[in-house]
Write a structure and sequence with these properties.
single chain; about 400 residues; mainly alpha; 16 helices
Length: about 400
């Protein structure tokens, strides 16, 4: 049962990375077709993330009131329709607007997956399950850029959105048949404006919860800074082909996946908070390494090594931050998952356009965004969560 649940929830979480990564290698082609600049094309990524953030607030609240299945299935169905419309976008501005709706629809996957995990598991069992879930989720960044690069060999960037729509149709059918409802009626919370605002206020007032959410958000901000700038930097500055870019991008995604494997193996032997701090430290070291390459040069290899460290840190950091944050609010798992997701993706959405401020292919903005994000993540993660014991072995046994 746990294996099936991991696969189902992992598939839900894959829609987000697939939506972001499959058309990244096509950014230059999109810019050329529409006669748009780098920053204009990157707005299609930013609006997607903003839409996903808004959607998580809505879906998180509804999933605590209506159960997990109904908001989820509606979101996946809407995603399939909007993806087909994206394939016919007439301009960069229209694509950015459609991506806002697409992001809103895909939000159901991330929110409901975390909420179901919180419904079913406690303590270190939840930490292990969350690590397995993030490990499955790591397949998205591994497969999506390679898939996107190969699709561009046989179709235009518009075809990638058709493929996404087909994936959503298949996923809808599987989820409708195989995913059980995990929130019984007696545990549901009525949808009312004032109580909902109070719940969100209580979550934001929880210093440790906010610390875990912001640390994770800033780490993902660094990752999305890389995602937003990678196609232009790796192809424009270092001269890689779309297929070469896809392989480098996939190699970094494999690092996240391998780090997730290691994290899963260590969970239960090392408490989540210690693993979180390890991930934060790795990210900061990698960010400073990128600054060094920007100042002193060294070519593609010197650039990729610290980049590899930053991406590896995400595989350790994110599952433990999510576990520690969700463990604090079992009574409102959907809302807690929504706030966690919104915090993450709002920060990431703000980071993405900053990478294009130089107006031309350059490593400088991307390095600045990643270095600042990883350093701030370390500071916030240590300061705001100071004094919180997290999940201990003793508490899990009790």
């Amino acid at each position: 049962m746990r294996t099936r649940l991991v696969l189902l929830l992992g598939a839900l979480c894959l829609l987000g990375p697939l939506s972001i990564d499959t058309h990244l290698p096509a950014f230059p082609a999109i810019a050329e077709e529409f006669g748009a600049g780098q920053s204009e094309v990157q707005w299609s990524l930013a609006t997607f993330i903003i839409g996903m953030s808004i959607g998580q607030l809505v879906v998180g609240t509804l999933s605590d009131s209506w159960g997990r299945r109904r908001p989820l299935l509606f979101g996946v169905a809407l995603y399939a329709v909007v993806s087909l419309v994206c394939a016919a976008a007439p301009s960069a501005g229209a694509l950015a607007a459609l991506r806002l709706v697409q992001g809103f629809s895909v939000a159901s996957g991330f929110v409901v997956a975390l909420a179901i995990a919180r419904d079913r598991f406690e303590g270190l069992a939840m930490a292990r399950f969350m690590s397995l879930l993030m490990l499955t989720n790591g397949l998205g960044p591994v497969l999506a850029p390679v898939l996107g690069g190969q699709l561009l060999r046989v179709m235009t960037w518009r075809g990638t959105f058709v493929v996404l729509a087909l994936v959503a149709v298949v996923l809808f059918a599987v989820l409708a048949f195989a995913l059980p409802e995990t929130l019984p009626p007696e545990k549901r919370r009525p949808t009312q404006w004032r109580p909902t605002v109070r719940v969100f206020g209580a979550l934001l007032a929880d210093r440790a919860f906010l610390g875990y959410a912001l640390a994770s958000a800033l780490a993902l901000g660094a990752l999305f800074g890389y995602v937003a700038g990678a196609s232009f930097v790796l192809q424009g500055v270092f001269g890689l082909s779309p297929q070469g870019f896809s392989l480098v991008f996939a190699a970094n995604a494999v690092a996240i996946f391998v780090a997730g494997l290691l994290n899963t193996a260590l969970t239960g032997r090392v408490v989540p908070k210690a693993l979180l701090r390890l991930g934060l430290a790795m990210g900061a070291v990698g960010g400073l390494g990128l600054v060094a390459t920007g100042l002193f040069g060294g070519g593609l290899v010197a650039f990729l090594v610290p980049l590899f460290v930053v991406t590896t840190s995400v595989g350790v950091l994110t599952p433990n931050a999510a576990t520690l944050a969700m463990a604090r609010h079992a009574e409102a798992a959907g809302s807690a998952s929504a706030v966690l997701g919104v915090t993450r993706f709002v920060v990431a959405g703000l980071m993405a356009p900053l990478v294009g401020v130089s107006g031309s292919a350059s490593t400088g903005p991307m390095i600045a965004v990643m270095a600042c994000s990883t350093t701030l993540a370390l500071v916030v993660g240590v300061v705001l969560t100071k004094g919180d014991a997290g999940i201990t072995r003793e508490a899990a046994v009790a």
